[in-house]
Amino acid sequence: MIKNFNKVVVFMVFAVLFTVVPLKEANAAVTGIPGSYKSEINYLIHKKVIAGYPDGRFRGDEEVSRQQAATMVGRALGLNNRKRTTEFPDVDKNSYASGYIQSAKDKGIITGYPDGTFRPQNTMTRKEMAYLVSKAFNFSNMSGAYFTDVKGPGSGYRAVNKVATAGVSNGTPDGRFLPNNKITRTEYSLFLARAMNNDYRVERDLAVQEERIISSSTPLNVRIGPGTGYKVINQFKTGRTVRVHKKVGNWLQVSYGNTLGFVHANYTTSDVSSSRVVAIDAGHGGWDPGASGHGVVEKEVNLKVSKLVRDKLAASGVKVVMPRRNDTYISLSGRVDYAQRNNADTFVSIHSNSFSSENASGVETYYSAAALGPRAYKSYKLSHFIQKRLVKAMDASDRGVKEAGFHVIKRTTLPSALVELGFVTNREEAQKLGSSYWRNRAANAVSRGIIDYYNWEERR
């Protein structure tokens, strides 16, 4: 087994594997790769970590054996693959996996079962894979990532937590990890690609139920799980406003800045107020995907960046309301009405651009001068502050601040801006918009631009 503590615990949510075939076939065209994951799987093929079956197919729904898993990790880490006798009596020295299995054993990445066997033909489970990948890639950071079907605070919980914290997996939409499910080649491949390349890592989609204030008389411990038996990862000071994502008994899963963890509900209060309320509008959604190009879909980019902007602003003390918080369609007028019903004082709509020519590139920000006077001028300044930050953060050409009559910035009574992060139809910019690293940079720029605007308004 891959590390054994009674039951190996390993985590994973989306990870896939290959078939073990001679790597001379790795450059041949592989068919049957799931469309949503072609980038990750082709990355592994290019790195000569995986290959297709002899018939050229990927066969992503097939299960992954323990020897296949060890081979794939061994290739990813560049371990010695010389066939040889191993410490496991059930691993044939002539097996294609024997070298990788022994090398991984030597490095402490894997161990056997209590009876000393490795059981190479057994199918890997998702919890076993979490343990394997967390050990192989030295993931050590932990957070309050929580799955309803992974019980802690034992070693299995820690392995799953480490992989989730690293952005290698984010569980199922209903909050489960399915730790005992057998892992497929597609799942394992995704898992490994994310472990190897930060650009493929996933962001946890955590709905915000409410905001609360830390009310303890001393700094409050933040733990990785809902109970005092879980590890403390941070402390929150009295008076800090945190976002609540989940309730588990008397414990709250909360976040502030980059910290996600659990605090006891008795040491919080719901008396939250903010002098600033900005509406962050994630453009498109649901049946309206927006623009697309080079494997990037606008509605997905818009939502991911908007959520990052929300979190960064909230960490700076700015209250955020979001008309669209998931993949649903909301009408243009519905977005405007939502912002105003929720007492927003500013409105920023996040979009990604497109054009018929792939050469079009750069970032631009729009305001509406439909209502001449103070609102139009404030909208111009808001757009200017965001544009200045965004051009620098995205290392992109400056297409400028422009006036336009887009509904969401024209029909609101609030100072407003519509941001175009880059062109999904431009290969280089599409790669950026599909990358968690560049999306985070974009969110930093937009949030800091909004704060620049608020600071300017207060100085007037």
Automatic annotation (TrEMBL):
Species assigned in the record: Salimicrobium humidisoli
UniProt xrefs under Gene3D superfamilies: SH3 Domains (2.30.30.40), Zn-dependent exopeptidases (3.40.630.40)
Protein name: N-acetylmuramoyl-L-alanine amidase
Statement: the UniProt record of this protein carries the keyword Transmembrane helix: no
Signal sequence residues: 1-28
Pfam family, one: SLH
SLH domain mapped to chain residues: 24-83, 84-147, 148-206
Keywords (A to Z) from UniProt: Cell wall biogenesis/degradation, Hydrolase, Signal
Keyword Endoplasmic reticulum: no
Domain SH3b, chain residue ranges per copy: 209-272
